[in-house]
Amino acid sequence: MFYEPRNGHGLPHNPFNAIVTPRPIGWISTRGRDGQDNLAPYSFFNAVAYVPPQVMFASTSTKPDRDGTKDSVANIRETGVFCVNIVEHAARDGMNTTSGPWPREVDEFQQAGIPRTPCRMIDAARVANAPAALECRMTQIVTLAGEANFMVLGEVIGVHMRDDCLQDGMFDITRFKPLARCGYRDYAVVEQVFSLKRPGE
């Protein structure tokens, strides 16, 4: 099968998200100038550079009360900071609850029963028991083609790692089983890993 996205795919559901998979989930926490906390998951998310460490996430929809975007991007525009919380398998239900189209005055931490704690370097809350959290300073927001598509880039200025996820000096993802987004309504969980040496090593 071949299709041009501009002409449609002819399938019951869009296959694009099922092709580009699995995708890590950035559970983005922000705080508006009014002090309102927000927590929302984004599967268009990844690390993009080592030195300095940088990440990105993209928001691809809008809310009627946020002037052409969603709460996360609107808050970052106001404050210039955000935190990426890593999602473990055990937090799947809470993460899913925070994905709802809640009004801006709804506190998703409270709505989903997610414990929070203050970030150290930025004015925002983070998920208290997340396996890891990356405190970020926004470097740019890029407007992408299409309606309400924004890519947020940020420099990681603070890193939290849960102590039980460290094993022999390494961050062991099998200790918490990270959740990944697949296509449609599907998710995956990383339960085992393997290593490959690069040529010449």
UniProtKB/TrEMBL annotation:
Alphabetical list of InterPro entries matching this protein: Flavin_Rdtase-like_dom, Split_barrel_FMN-bd
Pfam family, one: Flavin_Reduct
Domain of life of the source: Bacteria
Domain Flavin reductase like intervals: 18-173
The name this protein goes by in its record: Flavin reductase family protein
